[in-house]
Every structure is written in C-alpha cells, then in structure tokens.
C-alpha cells in the first residue's frame, strides 16, 4: 500500500503524527545503538528531563517529549492507539484540530509532569497526547449523545486502568485527559448545536 493510501485510510494529520513519532524513534535507536530499548542519556536529551527544563532552559523538551519513546513496545502500543483513535477524532474535527488536541494535551501532561515529579525525573511518550485524543472523543460522544454521566465514568475508568500499570507517568495521563475532555466538551456542544440547527432549521 502506497503512502497516499495510508494517509487516506488513517487521516492526513493522524498518519503524519505517526510518521513523526516513528522517525524520532529511529533517531533514538541510532543514537542509543539499540532499537529495543533507548538509553537514559538519549531520553534525557530528547525527552523531558525536568532538571534540564528548569535549570538549562530546555523548554522545548515539553514538546519534543511527546514524540519520544523509551522502547519498542512503548512506541508500538502508542502508535497503534494513535492510528485507531486519531483517525476517529480527525474524522470528526478535521486534521488541524486533531493536531491541536495532540499538542495541547501533550503539553498539558508534560507541564503537570514538570510541576509534580522530582527534578531528576526523565519522562517521554505520546501518552498524554493520546489521552487527550481519547478524552476528546469520550466527551464529544457524551455531549452529542446526551449521556454526560456515562462519558465521565468512561473517562474515569480509562484513567484508573492505565494508572495502575507499571512505569506509567500518571501525571502526563491526567493532564492530557483533562485537557482533551475540556476540548471535547467545547466541540461537542458546537456539534450538537449544529445538528439541532439542521434538524429544526435555525441558525447557530
């Protein structure tokens, strides 16, 4: 299958984010000399090392870390969920808003990590951004479907299940999820108003 078919199948923005993540992982593997597990030195340089952010002014790590992964299984799981969930949200909100949700949610998760984890902590991964995507999907579905209680329960269960896994950055997940839910609530209300306008013939 050509690249054009993958872009059409998964969405332009979703597959572009996928390619960026994979390309960064290839670079990590080359620098580490190991494609299965990335060295802590490389993660501290390309991911988010709180000490470097606070003391060296490496604020760009708050963005770069959401494209960096610690090992092959880590990126494999995250990219699977990016392709599955990203294309759904892109189909609802469009490519630009999908990228916005990814970046803003990932940034929120990384900022919470900076505030709440020790200065010597090193973190990496797209999980915060992915939680934002899933949170947005859950809230859009809840608002449009008129089942906010169910949406909030689903979001809570999602967070709870993932927070008990080993070596998980709970703060990145929480920050990304909450911001994604807020974005989803906003666009869910817009979509619902639009649907009501079409149904009853009034402007919005």
From TrEMBL:
Membrane-topology descriptor: Multi-pass membrane protein
Designated name of the protein: Peptidase
Localization, UniProt: Membrane
Record key words, sorted: Hydrolase, Membrane, Protease, Transmembrane, Transmembrane helix
Record's GO cellular component terms: membrane
GO molecular function: serine-type endopeptidase activity
Transmembrane region(s): 58-77, 98-117, 123-141, 148-165, 171-188
Main localization category: membrane
Superkingdom to which the source organism belongs: Archaea
Keyword Transmembrane helix: yes
GO BP field: proteolysis
């Amino acid at each position: 299958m050509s690249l054009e078919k993958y872009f059409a199948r998964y969405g332009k923005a979703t597959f572009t984010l996928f390619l960026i993540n994979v390309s960064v992982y290839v670079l990590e593997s080359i620098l580490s000399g190991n494609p299965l597990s990335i060295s802590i030195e490389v993660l501290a340089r390309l991911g988010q090392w709180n000490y470097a952010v606070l003391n060296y002014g490496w604020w760009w790590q708050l963005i770069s870390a959401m494209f960096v992964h610690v090992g092959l299984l880590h990126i494999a799981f995250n990219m699977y969920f990016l392709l599955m969930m990203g294309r759904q949200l892109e189909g609802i909100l469009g490519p630009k808003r999908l990228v916005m949700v990814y970046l803003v949610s990932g940034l929120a998760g990384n900022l919470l990590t900076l505030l709440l984890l020790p200065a010597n902590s090193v973190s990496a991964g797209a999980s915060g951004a992915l939680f934002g995507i899933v949170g947005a999907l859950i809230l859009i579905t809840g608002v449009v479907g008129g089942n906010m209680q169910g949406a909030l329960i689903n979001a809570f269960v999602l967070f709870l299940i993932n927070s008990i896994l080993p070596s998980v950055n709970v703060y990145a997940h929480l920050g990304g999820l909450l911001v994604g839910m807020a974005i989803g609530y906003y666009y869910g209300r817009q979509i619902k108003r639009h649907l009501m306008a079409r149904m009853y013939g009034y402007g919005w």
